[in-house]
Design brief:
- This protein has two domains: 2-29 and 101-206, Ribosomal Protein L4, Chain: A (3-Layer(aba) Sandwich); 51-91, no CATH class.
- Helix content is 32%, strand content 14%.
- It has helices at residues 20-23, 29-42, 103-119, 136-145, 161-167, 183-188, 196-203, and strands spanning 2-6, 12-17, 123-126, 152-156, 173-177, 191-195.
- The chain has a six-stranded mixed sheet.
Length: 207
């Protein structure tokens, strides 16, 4: 599999090879969904917290006798139906949302999304993406010249501070290193931009 390579002015500068084991696999939507749920669940931080019956302060004395008052039966002041009582079935910050998934399954899900990008013609390969200084205006000019969708994810092989700072003020563009490509970003952003170096890194994943 081959794809065109462009320079930063949207001119063809050659072709690059796409590993069919990475960019040409059959798309498995169920696997992609599982990998996305895994990522979102493992990133979840439980903050909301309510007290149980044992944690709520107060006497355990029965408020009034069981019969003869004409009122409903009532236990202690810590009952969940009374003001300042404990919360029944409330959220707890010690809840574990962690999920697990085999490494090969996670990798296969990544390959499925990359293959879907190729099929949808949403993958753009550029020879390199370098900037002498961090300027949002210059980066916006480059993004306008390339055949991109409404939202763009740029994956570089190595950290590039000038590119990262230039992109930070563009609402529809995000920068990430190719080693940290993830399901949430790939599914959220319409177009994926790779450099030749980052493409080589991805091609080597199936080795």
């Amino acid at each position: 599999m081959n794809t065109k390579v462009y320079d930063m002015k949207w001119k063809e500068s050659g072709t690059a090879t796409l590993n069919k084991d990475v960019f040409g696999v059959e798309v498995n939507e169920d696997l992609i969904h599982r990998a996305l749920v895994l990522q979102l669940a493992n990133a979840r931080v439980a903050i909301a917290h309510t007290k149980t019956r044992g944690e709520r302060r107060g006497s355990t004395r029965k408020i009034y006798r069981q019969k003869g008052t004409g009122r409903a039966r009532m236990g202690s002041n810590r009952s969940p139906i009374r003001k300042k009582g404990w919360v029944a079935f409330g959220p707890r910050n010690d809840r574990n949302f962690t999920l697990t998934m085999n490494r090969k399954e996670r990798q296969k899900a990544l390959f499925c999304v990359l293959s879907a990008k190729v099929t949808a013609k949403s993958l753009v390969v550029v020879k390199k993406l370098e900037m002498k200084e961090a300027k949002t205006k210059t980066m916006n000019t480059i993004m306008t010249a390339l055949p991109l969708g409404k939202t763009t994810l740029i994956a570089l092989a190595e950290k590039n501070e000038n590119v990262e700072r230039s992109i930070s003020n563009l609402k529809t563009v995000k920068y990430v290193q190719s080693a940290y490509l993830n399901m949430a970003d790939l599914l959220k952003y319409e177009t994926l931009v790779l450099t030749e170096d980052s493409l080589n890194q991805l091609n080597a994943l199936s080795a």
